[in-house]
Structure formats: structure tokens, C-alpha cells
UniProtKB/TrEMBL annotation:
Keywords: ATP-binding, Nucleotide-binding
Lineage: Bacteria, Pseudomonadati, Candidatus Hydrogenedentota, Candidatus Abyssobacteria
Protein's UniProt name: ABC transporter ATP-binding protein
Top-rank lineage group of the source organism: Bacteria
Gene3D superfamilies, sorted: P-loop containing nucleotide triphosphate hydrolases (3.40.50.300)
SUPFAM superfamilies: P-loop containing nucleoside triphosphate hydrolases (SSF52540)
Pfam families: ABC_tran
Amino acid sequence: MAERRNNEFAIETHHLTRRFGHVVAVDDLNLSISRGEVFGFLGPNGAGKSTTIRMLCGILRPSEGGGTVGGFDIVNEPEKIKRVIGYMSQSFGLYSDLTVEENLAFYSRLYLRDWSVAKQKREAIIETMGFGEYRDQLSAQLSGGWKQRLALACAVVHEPQILFLDEPTAGIDPVSRRVLWDILYDLSQNKGITLFVTTHYMEEAERCNKIGFIWRGRLVACDSPSVIKSRTMTDELLNLKCSDIQKAFELLSKAPDIIDVNIYGDELHIVVPQAREGAETVRRLMDGAGVAVHMLEPIAASIEDVFVSLSRRN
């Protein structure tokens, strides 16, 4: 196992930049992620999330800048980094013609040279993640949620210091997502593993200790969810339920006093400078259009509201 260096940060980058020709995929990225932290990395498709992970994992060389992962330099010590990290992608990348136990055996031996230690770790992860009755089943026959659980088990069977997860819950049902996150929190809180997670599920981002929002390669916000919400949403937010949501949306989208409006299920989230005056404007517009207001009240901004606001602002 690679030598562990004393460093309060599990991941740290300084002006990290990656270009592909004239395209700047990651632009002057500065991050400091503490050990044992759950860090959520958010941004639209093509924003630079996966490119960042590839550089941090020692797979892709930066064009400029640098950083450390687990105390090792991402430019000069990529092989040492690979020994102290785990990686789990959004697509199931395990061997479909192998059983659960055979997949775990392969990955444990890949990372751990001692056969007896590898077997011990493998048995422990089978018990911890509830694979007892599935150990002889082909991975191809598992449900989506169990496949992702197996992918996670293979990523942590060697007990890495840092775990990179690229949209780990994409495409699985809500119950399986909750179970997977319970396991992730256990790894962070009880095992001290640092989690670097990309996700498009905003309720998952809310559960992170810190989140960073990247847009066209640039980090535009980075802090705890509560701090980012308070700093980003300087305007106020109204929640509207009404008789004709589509008509209300069209009216409010054109209103000069309304900053922004978005549909959330059967509700509208309306961004206004001041909640009281904004509510009066909304009621006046709805009354004039014959739209019945069932509920109109101020609400606190969610991470999804922040995500939308930052996207449109940038």
C-alpha cells in the first residue's frame, strides 16, 4: 500500500486546467476537500465533471496546474494515487459472466497482493452489503439496484481512502438509491472514506457536507449546501399551486416583475425580489386570467432552485 502522508485535505487542487485543442474542459479549478467529507460535484452535462475526475484519478494529465489526492501528486505520482482510491461509474462496468463472488474476488486480488487478506476483505464486504444469498448468482441476473451495490462493493473491497462516484445512482429506483446512500454514509462516517460524488439528483446533493457547482469548466460556487443557498438566492421564492399550471407559467414567464419561474410537478417556484410584493403581483395576474390560486406561500430555496439559478445566471 502506498505511503500515507499527513495532510488535512484528501483532495486539493491548484489552478487545475485541462484543454482539448481550443476547448477548455476544466478551467483554473481550485478545490480543498477534507478527509472523510462527502463532496458533491454538480453541473450540467459537458461542464467538466468527468474530466476533473479523470485528472484526480491520475488517468488524464492536466494541461496546467496540479493537485494532490491522498497526499500524492496527480502529475508525478499517479500510480500511487491509484492504490489509495476507488472508482464507481454510472454504467455497470463489472463482468456479467461472473458471479457476485467472482467479481469481488477479481477486484480484491487486483488491489490486494496477499490472497488471505483479499479473501478476508471479500467475505467482510459480502456480509456488510448483504450479498450472502446472491454470492453465486451471475451479476447479469441482478436488478439495477443490486448491480450498483455490487459495483460499489468492488470499488471499496480494498478499503480505499478516497472513493470517486460518477453518477452512482443513475437509472435505479428510489428505494435502491436510498439504500446505496445509507451505505455511502456508513463508509464516510464509520470508515473515514472521503466521497467525491457527481449527481443530477438534487436531493442527493442536499445530503453532502459540501458541494461544488461547475459551469463550462469553471467552479462558480463551492461551500456547504446551506451557505450556497443563502449566498446564491439573494431574491425570494414563492410556491404556487393553482387550477391551470401551464397557463400560470406562461403568464408569469412574461411578467416584468417576475425574475424567474419553474415548474416542479404540480407547483410553480417563482423567484421575486420581495415575497410580499411578489405575491400581490402573482394574485393579480392569476385573478385577471381566471386562474384559481389554491396555495401561494414563501418557501426556502432548495439546491435544485440554486442549480437552475446558477445555470441561467452563467
